[in-house]
Design goal:
Blueprint: H1 2-24, E1 31-35, E2 41-46, H2 49-52, H3 59-71, E3 80-85, H4 89-97, E4 102-107, E5 132-135, H5 139-159
Parallel strand pairs: 3-4, 4-5
Antiparallel strand pairs: 1-2, 1-3
Helix pairs in contact: 1-5
């Protein structure tokens, strides 16, 4: 059990580093890491919506794409996602389609997170794949990263 908790902490720290990279580029600071069943990192990404002008370029979606290329399959069975922010409904739907096993996320997103909005796509009995979802890992660190980012955005907007 301790080993799994250490893996979660280590991998979430990696996702936070990716989120910081996104913030440095002016992107909403969300980072995502996908590991295989042995716990090896097979994909990592951060948001690129602003740079690529693509509303679908969420960290989770980009990580799924990279992991699928690595695995040479769209089925990411036995793979886990670690992400700094609760996935939105679009991302949770994509995670279900990709057959992700577990999702570990940092900050809850009461304004856009699938679970917080009551969209329980991860365990909807009508779908043929269920995802185990665990939230709140490094919550304060992940929340602070996002809060600080938007405070800076608002401050810069006012100064213009």
């Amino acid at each position: 059990m301790q080993m799994q908790f250490d893996l979660i902490n280590y991998t979430m720290t990696h996702a936070i580093d990716l989120a910081q990279q996104a913030a440095n580029l002016g992107e909403v600071p969300v980072g995502a890491v996908i590991t295989d069943k042995a716990g090896r990192v097979i994909a990592k990404a951060h948001n690129t919506k602003e740079r690529e002008l693509n509303a679908c370029n969420h960290a989770e979606i980009l990580a799924i794409k990279e992991a699928s290329e690595y695995m040479r399959s769209w089925r990411l069975v036995d793979c886990d996602l670690y992400v700094t922010l609760e996935p939105c409904p679009m991302c949770m739907g994509a995670l279900s389609q990709a057959r992700i096993r577990n999702v570990y996320f940092g900050a809850y997103d009461t304004k856009g997170g699938a679970i917080s909005l009551g969209k329980k796509l991860h365990n909807d009995e009508r779908l043929n794949h269920k995802i185990n979802v665990y939230g709140g890992f490094k919550h304060l660190e992940c929340s602070k990263l996002i809060s600080d980012f938007f405070k800076r955005k608002r401050k810069n907007y006012v100064e213009i």
